[in-house]
Amino acid sequence: MRILLMALLASISLTATANDDCGSPYVIDENKADMGPRHHPIGRPLPATGAFHQPTGCLEGLWFYDRNGNGSPDAAEPRLFGAQRVVDCGSCHGESPATRSAASASVFLRLDAATLCTVCHNL
């Protein structure tokens, strides 16, 4: 119980501190508003609930899931944008050296689709 409480307090303090240093509010390009049913919704902030893993790094307005712990947003690490941690196309899509299925690589997903979803979503 004590460990759970300490982890919760650490995540709250990390979010509060990083918000102050992680850029201004992010604005989505209105031309991207309706990408269709096969795309993840964009323009929404990541909820700060247990249903979502929280990003572990922030650098110059870019939140990222620092999977290798090097403090930099690497190509295979999903990212969120601006102080409110908004999902945009670049959250999931980008050139990446990660091993991926041919289908994931063909649409430039940072990770294989089966892995990518579980980086943010606590499934």
Q: What's a concise summary of this model?
A:
Keywords: Signal. The chain has helices at 2-21, 89-92, 102-106, 113-120, and strands at 57-59, 62-64, 79-81.
Give a quick account of the main beta sheet: strands, pairing sense, barrel closure. Answer: 3 strands, antiparallel
How many separate domains make up the residues? 1
Summarize the amount of helix as a percent range.
25-40%
What is the straight-line distance between the termini?
22 Å
| Poorly predicted residue ranges | 1-19
**Structural class designation:** mainly alpha
- What's the helix-strand series? HEEEHHH
Beta-strand proportion: 5-15%
Number of strands: 3
Count the helices. How many? 4
- In the sheet with the most strands, the strands line up as 1-2-3
> Rg from C-alpha positions?
15 Å
Overall 3D shape: globular
Q: Roughly what is the average pLDDT, rounded to an integer?
A: 83
Keywords: Signal
Organism: Denitratisoma oestradiolicum
InterPro entries: Multihaem_cyt_sf (IPR036280)
Protein name: Doubled CXXCH motif domain-containing protein
